[in-house]
Specification:
- It is a single chain.
- This protein is an all-beta fold.
- It folds into two domains: about 60 residues, no CATH class; about 140 residues, no CATH class.
- It is about 0% helix and about 55% strand.
- The chain is built from no helices and 19 strands.
- The strands form four sheets. Strands 6, 7, 8, 9, 10, 11 and 12 form a seven-stranded antiparallel β-sheet that branches. Strands 13, 14, 15, 16, 17, 18 and 19 form a seven-stranded antiparallel β-sheet that branches.
- A hairpin with a 2-residue loop joins strand 8 and strand 9.
- The protein is globular and about 35 Å long.
- The protein starts with a strand and ends with a strand.
- It comes from Lygus hesperus (Western plant bug).
- This is Latrophilin-2.
- InterPro entries: DM9_repeat (IPR006616), Lectin_gal-bd_sf (IPR043159).
Amino acid sequence: GQVSLFVAGGILCIRCDGGAFPILSSCQGKHSCRIINGWGTAHNPCYNWLKFTELRYECVPERYLVRTAPSTDWSSTSRVIGGYDELTGRELYVGRTVHDGNVLPCYVKGDECIYSLNGQYGRNSTFVYLKSNNLGYDEDYKWLLKRGGDVPPAAVPFGQTNLGKPWFVGRAAINGGLYVGKVVPGEGLYVGYKDFEVFLKDYEILVQ
């Protein structure tokens, strides 16, 4: 669906589905976005990340502001490069897609976004690119070496489980290529690769 951005009380809300609407609320003295769907069911406004299962919304602190572009936007010159393909050397971009209520960091190869979930490899032609605020991403994002699910405070949250737990963008070298996947806190990096899910303890994590 259409993606639009608005900031409410210092909280960035990324609207991804016209079927829901935001209401400004307050959580522990701070403004946040309270999401109410068309049926009038309220979700807890105290989550930094709200469930995507039906509403296709995310609300994140403004310091985690990220810019995205839809998969149909081939004109973008500021898509963040995450790695490269082992066979062709072709650049792979950082992306995000939705599957079964999960919001998944992935790598964009051609017109598809490659991800992994629950031990399975997946592909989706509907996704968004992560964009930098500049023509080059070096001033916006850096990659830090980490291991064992370590997530530094500056890591970029770019996904979540269908229960609202955050995932982060990571990458690692596999067979001569460099591939993007999701960092699960306390575990490590999971990457979709050649019809399989690959788990890596050592990885680089994207930070701002």
